[in-house]
Amino acid sequence: MAIKLKEIANKEERLVAGHRFCAGCAEPILTRQILNAIDDPVVLSCATSCMEIATSIYPYSSWRVPWIHSAFENASSTIAGAEAMYRSLVRQGKIEDRGLKFIAFGGDGATYDIGLQWISGCFERGHKMMYVCFDNEAYMNTGIQRSSATPLGAHTTTSPAGTVIPGKQQWRKPLTEIFAAHHIPYVAQASPSRWRDLMNKAQKGVAADGPAFLNVIAPCPRGWRHEPEEAIELAKLAVETCYWPLYEVENGQWKLNFKPREKKPIIVWLERQGRFRHLFQPQFRHVIDEIQAKVDEEWERLLERCGEA
Question: What is the pTM of this model?
Answer without folding.
Answer: 0.96
